[in-house]
Amino acid sequence: MLYRIARPVKYIGLGFAVIAVLALAIAPFSTRLVEQWSRSDVEARSRLVYKAIQNSMVRAIADGDTSRLAAIFENVALDDRILAVALCDESGRLINPTKLMPATFSCDKVARSEAESFSTIFNDGRRILVGTFPIVERNQKAYLLVLHDLSFIDTRSGEAHGFVVAALAGIAIAIAGVAAVFVVVMLRGWMTSLRRAVEEVRSGAVLSPQARDRSAIDHQIKKLLGEIEIGRETITSRQIDWSPAALQELLRKTLPDVEVLVISNREPYIHNRENGEISLQTPASGLVSALEPVIRACGGTWIAHGSGNADRETVDHDDKIRVPPDAPSYTLRRIWISDEEQDGYYYGFANEGLWPLCHIAFVRPQFREADWRQYEAINQRFAEAVVQEARTPDPIVLVQDYHFALAPRMIRQRLPRATIITFWHIPWPNAETFSICPWKERIIDGLLGSTILGFHTQFHCNNFFETVDRFVESRIDREHATVTSGGHETMVRAYPISIEWPPKALAGQPSIDLCRSQVRESLGLAADVKLAVGIERFDYTKGILDRMKAVDDLLTRDPAWKRRFTFLQVAAPTRSKLASYSTLQSEAVALAGDINARHGDDSWQPVVLLIRHHEAADVFRLFRAADVCIVSSLHDGMNLVAKEFVAARDDEKGVLVLSSFTGASRELSEALIVNPYNTHEMSAALDTALRMPGHEQQERMRLMRQQVREWNVYRWAGRMLIDAKASRQRLRILDISEANQVR
Ligand code: F6P
Q1: Would the CATH topology of 21-155 be identical to that of 256-494?
Q2: Ligand 1 atom having least distance to the Cα of 285
Q3: Which CATH number fits domain 21-155: 3.30.450.20, 3.60.10.10, 3.30.450.40, 2.60.200.20?
């Protein structure tokens, strides 16, 4: 629209310029015209005078009556324009000049020929036109001279020039006036329709076709609003103190009545029957611990694989259950997957294909056609479930992780107006690495069905851009971080995931001292033994063997630590069906036994390995009891264990040893950052951590806690929702703009 306003303004300016050029061009032309016209007028008058007095003059000359001749001349000279009249005889003598004849005038100054002639002479700064008319009487030749003062021509040309300029200026002013009225009227109309359109966009009302026709918003406004939104996003996401209430407020104000749907493989609550009793388990999953507080705040429906052996018993006839069980705030819809499907989709393609493909842990990815088919089918099943659950045509769908790379496109095909936010919780490899996947184009295309695609770090976004660039026909706009493919635009951004603040698991925790004594007692350790912990799923990407080797190295290099230090590894069994995982478990058990045999004795074991799932409250108690937490992932998208350790330490003590290959290391720079492949570097860091004075621990921990508090999971979700809101507005404005163009 702005260019439509700018256009007349531009034309007015152009008009003025043209008129100025015209005035400059016409000025000398009009002067010349007036001059020529005045001069021929004067010449005609001279001729008239000659004709009028010719006979009487000839008679007076023939009679030799000079006084009659003088009287005739004086009579002619009475005319205002005529300066003087006289005769020149053949010898060049001036005869009977009238009174105003210039004193310096002589007959030599004019041509005396057989025919009439006109010449211009200058006298006292004046231009004088001299008309010379030959007279022949009785073989005597004389010349009548009629002198006109031409200074009136200069006055007349000046006036003509002034008139031309004034006329053109008048025209210009008239045009400008008309154009100004036109612009004002147009501006008013546009502003009214803009205001109406923005109000409609803001209110989220569905536009009727008539309303769309009314609007005059076009691409310029769309761009403008987009920029405003981006600016607003920066301000709001930074300024808000992010909490569940802030997230709810954001939804209420900017996305009123929006429907939120989540899909993930892992469900937030698992029902299992053990010894005839149904028990509730919350899984060891970073994804679940991050997303659960968000969906609790937003409400909505979470669609996930029902993996518990009592899950079917606990849902209603629509496979749904309200959770959390103690204070229900959202719906869990369970999807059933057979063992065979699970082998192909989850164990096969997701965890033997994509997982090792995306993590640099030097485990060879396995790609099997049959697994891929199952993966496709399960993605389709979840996409169908989203369509079934959606009550509106444009829900916000949060697609989680590498289990659902195809689902965004499948959902988009069925719900074209949905806002699909896909978050990839693991790293994205470089294009070279990704190229080995036989279905790479399908995976990229599936993800590009998203409205927003999120990664933990900018580095992974850049890897994704590079991969898209290599394998898919698309337009990548790195400045605005978008990929456009098949006419659909996907925003690709870094949203570092985090944990809730304050963490729910912290509520009701005993004091730090009590946690320390309880845990040491349960492990059979003396009260002054230093404790380092590692807590995670038993996954080969976590570097569990590497940290054990660092413990071994520390005790070998500095035996003084014996009986003064213990390392506790808590590992939740995971994906144990896969050889790469079961082998890791056996290796870890063997390595722990070997280290204990070499360094331990009957009363003290340097490594304690607990292979079982711990609920969040137990994990937090261990964190609070520890002096050091070791996170030595070989590769990790973010790693929320590191953030949970920091959140658990409200005493501002404890040291975090953190792998540089985690996304978390970019935020928690006050940790002792290590390369887990370098055993000696890690053992040295462990030694530093165990010796670190309290005040240094406090300074480091305080800064890390501030980072995790401010960049908590509500901000992670809030930033994505703000971007989703901006994208929804852009979509609406695009609709309006398209409707205008059709019109
Ligand atoms: O790291 C990716 C991820 O989805 C995490 O978010 C989560 O902790 C883990 O994998 C879950 O693994 P699984 O559900 O296979 O046990």
Answers
A1: no
A2: 8
A3: 3.30.450.20
Residue 388 · residue 252 · CB < 8 Å: no
The predicted structure's pLDDT at residue 194: 61
Probe ligand 1: pick from 345, 398, 401, max atoms within 8 Å of CB? 401
Contact partners, residue 548, CB within 8 Å, separation at least 6: 567, 569, 588, 591, 592, 595, 607
Residue 80's contacts (CB-CB under 8 Å, 6 or more residues apart) are none
Which atom of ligand 1 lies closest to the CA of 283? 16
- Atom from ligand 1 closest to the CA of residue 640: 8
Compute, in degrees rounded to 10, the torsion defined by CA atoms 653, 658, 664, 665: 110
Helix (H, G, I), strand (E, B) or coil at 386: helix
Q: Map out the domains of the chain as residue ranges.
A: 21-155, 256-494, 507-711
Please give the Cα distance from 226 to 399 (Å, whole number): 24
Closest CA to 302 of 289, 287, 317, 320: 320
Pocket flag, ligand 1, residue 289 (CB < 6 Å): no
* Count of CB atoms situated within 10 Å of the CB of 529: 15
Structure tokens at 417: 């107006």
Closest by CA to 224, choosing from 190, 247, 182, is 190
Q: Which atom of ligand 1 is nearest to the CA of 636?
A: 1
In tens, the pLDDT along 424-452 reads 999 999 999 999 999 999 999 999 999 99
Q: How far is the CA of 550 from the centre of ligand 1 (A)?
A: 26
Atom of ligand 1 nearest to the CA of 351: 15
The CA 286 to ligand 1 mean position distance, Å, reads 6
Joined together, the tokens standing for residue 485 give: 């493919």
pLDDT at position 125: 82
DSSP state of 527: T
More confident call, 125 vs 561:
561
Q: Is 644 in the pocket of ligand 1 (CB under 6 A)?
A: no
DSSP helix/strand/coil, 345: helix
CA 271 to ligand 1 centroid distance, Å: 18
Structure-block tokens of residue 104:
């310096």
Choice between 221 and 602, residue whose per-residue pLDDT is larger: 602
Q: What percent of the chain has a predicted confidence (pLDDT) above 70?
A: 91
Determine whether the shortest distance from the Cβ of 401 to ligand 1 is under 6 A. Answer: yes
Which amino acid would we find at residue 479? E
Ligand 1 centroid–CA 114 distance in Å is 120
32 pLDDT tier (thresholds 50, 70, 90): confident
pLDDT digits (tens, 9 = 90+) for 581-592: 999 999 999 999
User: Which CATH number does 507-711 carry?
Assistant: 3.40.50.2000
3-state secondary structure of 600: coil
User: Degrees (nearest 5) of the Cα angle 603, 604, 608?
Assistant: 130
C-alpha to C-alpha distance for 541 and 360, rounded to whole angstroms: 8
256-494: CATH architecture: 3-Layer(aba) Sandwich (3.40)
pLDDT per residue over 56-103, tens digit each? 988 888 888 888 999 999 999 998 889 999 999 888 889 999 999 998
For the four alpha carbons of 596, 601, 602 and 608, in that order, the dihedral sign comes to negative
Global pTM value: 0.71
